[in-house]
Amino acid sequence: PAPPAGTPALSATAAPAPASSVTPSTPLSRAPLAPVTQPAPGNGTAEERAAVETVFRTYLRAVADGDFATACALNAPETNQRLLDELARRGTPAPTCETAIATLYAGSGVAQGAATIADTLSVERVDVDGDAATVAWSVEVSGRRPVVTNALRRVDGQWRLLPTPDPTG
After folding, report:
1. What residues contact 115, with CB distance under 8 A and at least 6 apart?
2. Beta partners for 102?
3. Which partner for 118 in 63, 64, 91, 150 could form a disulfide, CB atoms 3.0-4.6 Å apart?
4. Contacts of 167 (CB under 8 A, 6+ apart)
5. CB atoms within 10 A of CB 105
6. Please, what's the b/e burial string for 111-134 (b: 16 or more CB within 10 A of its CB; e: otherwise)?
7. What local confidence, expressed as pLDDT, does residue 109 receive?
């Protein structure tokens, strides 16, 4: 199945190539990435924008590498809950966020799409306003480069990804 709308940052994987099964124990992760030192333009201090962009890029790399524990740790609590709720609604409940992501990406081709995103994304803009932030980013998809926006919020002093809005309402 495709990842639910609440899964951050993967909405640009419209037609990923097939991939093999990915499990949460895959020890390939390069996350966390080195901190971003030259953040994308936007509002907020360069330091805050860099922190937001680092979390965003680390999340994408973790998903691409099958390091679902890191990916889940970088989600806000409501993001992980929405993922679990969506899988339960689909009839494939999962006990943890890590298991949920592994279930979604196993053999579905989304893992390859996530790797392509992590390897080729361009962060266009990062805006920080207090404890809220947005990252506008793009990757090439079918010859186009649509801009996608993901929201983050500060949770216990750390930036965490919020659920992606459901485009179907």
Report:
1. 64, 65
2. none
3. 64
4. 5, 11
5. 28
6. bbbbbbbbeebebbbbbbeeeebb
7. 65
Cα-flanking dihedrals φ and ψ of residue 93, to 5°? -60, 150
Token pair belonging to 148: 């996608």
Kindly report whether the peptide bond that precedes residue 32 is cis, defined as omega within 30 degrees of 0. yes
Q: What pLDDT was estimated at residue 29?
A: 46
pLDDT in tens, the chain (169 residues): 334 445 565 543 332 222 223 333 334 444 456 788 899 999 999 999 999 999 999 998 898 888 999 999 999 999 999 999 999 999 999 999 999 988 887 765 666 777 777 778 899 999 999 999 999 999 887 888 889 999 999 999 999 999 986 544 4
Please tell me the distance from the alpha carbon of residue 164 to that of residue 140, in angstroms, as a whole number: 19
pLDDT of residue 108: 55
Tell me the longest C-alpha to C-alpha distance in the chain.
Answer: 44
